[in-house]
Amino acid sequence: MTMVSVGVGPVSEAELVAVARGEAPVELAAESLSALRDTRAIVEALADDIEPHYGISTGFGALATKHIPVQRRAQLQRSLVRSHAAGSGPEVEREVVRSLMLLRLSTLATGRTGVKVDTAQTLAALLNAGITPVVREYGSLGCSGDLAPLAHVALALMGEGEVRDSQGELRSAEQAMAAADIKPIALAEKEGLALINGTDGMLGQLLLACADLDLLLRTADLSAAMSIEAMLGTDRVFAADLQALRPQPGQAVAAANMRALLAGSPIVASHAGPDCVYVQDAYSMRCAPQVAGAARDTLAHARMVAGYELRSAVDNPVITLDGRVESNGNFHGAPVGYVLDFLAIPAADVASMSERRTDRMLDVARSRGLPPFLTDDAGVDSGHMIAQYTQAAVVSELKRLAVPASVDSIPSSAMQEDHVSMGWSAARKLRRSVDGLTRVLAIELLSAARALDLRRPLQPGPATGAVVAALRKSVQGPGPDRYLSPEIEAAVEFVRSGTAVRAANSGLAEELA
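The chain above was modelled as a monomer; its predicted structure follows.
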């Protein structure tokens, strides 16, 4: 497994996914160790300064005017972490916690936060040992960073609170760290604040969602192509010259994918002649590249914003390159919160179009010769009737999740923090949106595969045929009604794991973009 080196430069989306999901080990680059030592020296020099410095010799938030004597500053940092570890609700997913741990480590490694070398190294050691602090669903307002989620991580670094060990067992941080031979840290001036004041939770979830949506948009092109093929639709509308009349970049990619997926299809060829009575396909078929393409362009914008954030050193106060300690507002989560909300819109809309194609396949009046609800024996069997209900329920939920969280704000900290981003909330609902889109596309793909089987003796194209064949390893073909829920879940995993897209790529000269 490739080691991820965390230096003064940013980690990449791929590196984050590798650490969060793939358990890739991390190490601090030599340049980071040097930067950490240099900046820590500045903090320690300021600790004895008679002039107050926020986070070093003062209280926090609305208590920033209170001077803290030297002998109580270690207690100040411990108290900060303990009081801010105030999350509530269900545990946040392991991959999310690991992503925010990596991103906080990346910020520490820039040398702009003033923590000690051993503090950063201990955070890296927790990641490498597979020790994951328990972080709760509620607690972050997305301003002053993701305070509560990061405080639960900082608490574990101190050897306090609850964690999951590498086997997923719930243990005290003290026990888990002792078992992994990791020594808890003793926080010094500035360190508690540096560990909790960042946008790492919302950014980590944004990057994970971007990786997932990249796969799901290719899957959307695939499921749309399969549905169009199954309903005797035309591929002529996806021609490159027609698409070029509207030069939206994402649309061009989606249309090229669909041309490739439908190329060489005997089903498409069977009704391509001048005697075909189907003049135009419905919007959910004909406009698939326009919708999936717009979603791609939205994703590209979100990745651009994430790229800026990855290159940021978010903390307050921050140690500048010339050695000043300055308060700032870079912890405000608005840039990340906006794109988290933005991505929930195309997730809902791509799913909505997918559900419309599925409904069309099941409707004998619109499916161009397919049996009602793709049944084996209509009346006795219901086929995929209720699978579409499941899709509709998810799509309805996705529309609710598309309502932005970032337009809300509730003042906190005695009105010192009088405008907050709610970026963490936007991130949490986007994760649900991504899961919902996965399920909707899986049901369309499941139904389209069944419809393609029902078109026999006509055969699908090489790429779509490879997908049907791969799906048949876990889901049977057409027949009398069966227990449908396990088949839907198998299709969900088929999509989520990337198996569907890999199967399609096996039938293509070039992989889907």
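Strands lie at 4-6, 26-28, 88-91, 132-133, 136-138, 162-164, 170-172, 318-319, 325-326.
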